[in-house]
Amino acid sequence: MKIRPYILSVEDNPADVILMKRVFDLKISDYDSVFLPDTDIALNFLKEQYKADNLPSVVLLDIKLIKGNGLDLLKRIKNDSKFKTIPVLMLSSSDREDDKIKAYEYGCNQYIEKPRNYNELKNNFPRIVEFWCKKELTDD
Q1: What's the pLDDT at 40?
Q2: Beta strand 58-61 with 6-10: parallel, antiparallel or unpaired?
Q3: What DSSP assignment string belongs to 69-132?
Q4: Phi/psi at 82 (nearest 5 deg)?
Q5: 5: nearest Cα among 43, 32, 25, 36
Q6: CB of 104 within 8 A of CB of 89?
Q7: Which residue, among 110, 112, 68, has the nearest Cα to 93 in the 3D structure?
Q8: Closest by CA position to 109, among listed 92, 77, 87, 93
């Protein structure tokens, strides 16, 4: 049985999750999406998915989380041989230059400032997914 490719988003803002789910369902329907609220849950999830040979096609990672720091999780992902090849996109409301520098130093593949409204999200995310998700979909 073919496992559908999916995108993992580590995001703790419920409003952002709702908007992202809507965009994913409407515009990125070839990929499932998994939303997790903090870094500990996300790391444990990745470990379980590794065992199941079902890692995400891409990780969208917020920097500012209520529980944990996205930059710390990024560093752990990119320093672990099991996960380091997964594209990690930092998706944050922070436009601080030091956050961007740290994100790239820690190995993020792209730093994206969160879209300011739903239309920006709807218009930008499909292109991002198309660029970073490398799996070929088949109708098995």
Answers
A1: 95
A2: parallel
A3: BHHHHHHHHHTSTTTTTS-EEEEES---HHHHHHHHHTT-SEEEEPPSSHHHHHHHHHHHHHHH
A4: -75, -25
A5: 32
A6: no
A7: 112
A8: 87
CA–CA separation, 54 vs 92, rounded Å? 26
Q: What angle do CA 17, 21, 23 make, to 5 degrees?
A: 120
Contact in structure between 136 and 8 (CB atoms under 8 Å)? no
Residues in the chain: 140
Greatest CA separation for the chain: 45
Closest CA to 124 of 23, 25, 48, 41: 23
Residue 130 is predicted with a pLDDT of: 80
Structure-token pair, residue 137: 């979909």
Give the amino acid at 86.
Answer: I
Separation in Å, CA 86 to CA 54, 55, 135 = 12, 8, 12
Query: pLDDT tens string for the chain (140 positions)?
Result: 457 889 999 999 999 999 999 998 888 888 899 999 999 999 999 999 999 999 999 999 999 888 889 999 999 999 999 999 999 999 888 788 999 999 999 999 999 988 888 888 888 888 887 888 864 443 34
